[in-house]
Amino acid sequence: MIKELVLKNRSYRRFYQDHLITPDNLRELVDLARLSASGKNLQPLKYFISADNVTNEKIFSTLAWAGYLKDWDGPEEGEKPAGYIVILGDTRLTKNYFCDHGIASQSMLLGAVEKGLGGCIFASIKREKLKELLKVEDYFEILLVLALGKPKEEVVTEDVVDDNIKYYRDENQVHHVPKRTLQEIIIS
User: Fold this and answer.
1) Which of 49, 134, 142, 174 is paired with 59 by a 20 to 30 Å CA distance?
2) Which domains does the chain have, with CATH numbers?
3) What does the radius of gyration of the chain's CA atoms come to, in whole angstroms?
4) For residue range 73-125, what is the model confidence (pLDDT) as tens digits?
């Protein structure tokens, strides 16, 4: 069961924008992050959730979409995410978040997949602009943004060929993600 969820948990970048995600849906996902592992059990992560069009547009404007797809600036109107979770680090607790935000992101995205949704983790963010737009307190550090929605694209994995790990879209707009083989990554 977990392997099926992991396989379905791809980086989706186009969504059915009109598919409603509620604040309660987002809270359920944040609860999965809350229950996940945390270095030293510090639990320094906080979350800003958005499921309304005005705030979503603000967040959207600060994200860089699909670096390998040079001729694509991101989803068009009608294909944008229906919700976002901004992961914040609370510097009042620590400035070392270890890998907590990665663990939290994976937990939330696996939960999203289980609900028939999907998402994408963003680290390429105009952080200062986003802090200003969302009126986030200075003691919070923006770590990652999760874009969420009902996926409107097919994403498939395939074996890496000639060490080329760059994802791409084919002529049918299927998104291909090369993955190194198990034999290549296990060193024994």
Assistant:
1) 174
2) 2-152 (3.40.109.10), 154-188 (2.20.180.10)
3) 17
4) 999 999 999 999 999 999 999 999 999 999 999 999 999 999 999 999 999 99
CB 152 within 8 A of CB 131: no
Tell me the C-alpha distance between 176 and 159, whole Å.
10
Q: Kindly state the tokens that stand for 156.
A: 């498939």
Cβ-contact 44, 183 below 8 angstroms: no
Query: Where do the DSSP E strands lie in the chain?
Result: 45-50, 83-90, 118-122, 140-149, 155-159, 168-169, 175-179
Contacts for 102 with CB less than 8 Å, ≥ 6 apart: none
Residue type, 138: D
